[in-house]
Amino acid sequence: MNQRKVIASLVALLTVAALVISMIVAGVFSSKTPAAPKADSSSSTSEPQKPAELSPEVKKLIEQQHRLNPDDPRALGSLDAPVVIEMYSDYRCGHCRDWSLKTLPELQSFIDDGTVRIEYNSLPILGDESVLIAQASHAAALQNKFWEYHHELFANPPEPTAEALTELAGKVGMDTDKFTADLQSEETVKAVNEERTHGQALGISSTPSFIVGYSFLAGAYPIDQFNQIINAELKRPENQK
Hints:
Blueprint: H1 3-26, H2 56-63, E1 75-76, E2 83-89, H3 94-106, H4 108-112, E3 116-122, H5 128-141, H6 146-155, H7 162-171, H8 176-183, H9 186-201, E4 209-212, E5 215-218, H10 223-234
Parallel strand pairs: 2-3
Antiparallel strand pairs: 1-3, 2-4, 4-5
Helix pairs in contact: 5-6, 5-7, 5-8, 5-9, 7-8
């Protein structure tokens, strides 16, 4: 197959993947449970949907959303975790703050025992300040300080300015000269823009949102509801080994 055909095939695959995920987000694949109403750009919770039976082709397309990079500074947990959580978040979203400070720490036991892997995705949809803070988080990742910075951005949110974001970077032990250079570099701007565009192409329009295994959740769920969904995902046939 020549290069042009390879590229055409990849474009077609990505288009189908986006359509499939969009349908999952919309609730098309939810069995016996109606789709939740469309949430505002910043959402608290919508009723969790029952995990649906999906075809192998659909599952493969969902799995292709996972980065599964062993050196990924924006991921927590084992590459072999049976449940991968894709998190889509905005640092100016109050519900994202609540989830990151309350629910995320309570998932640590799942991460530690190899059950769950979490991959963070920037979805800055609340304006230019959200975009700048997302760029700051990417700059922190380049110094392997993403999760420390992520926590501080929510626990002790700075002013959404380059100066304040750089000052916070220094407080968590980063090289501030490198951080300043990376904050608004062409590579960082492109990475954030592409990640946001990809999330929106999947039909995700509110934060926080999650793909948990093969289930879509929109909202800052407390730990008991995450436990419920994770346990349901673990009961899927492919996890019964």
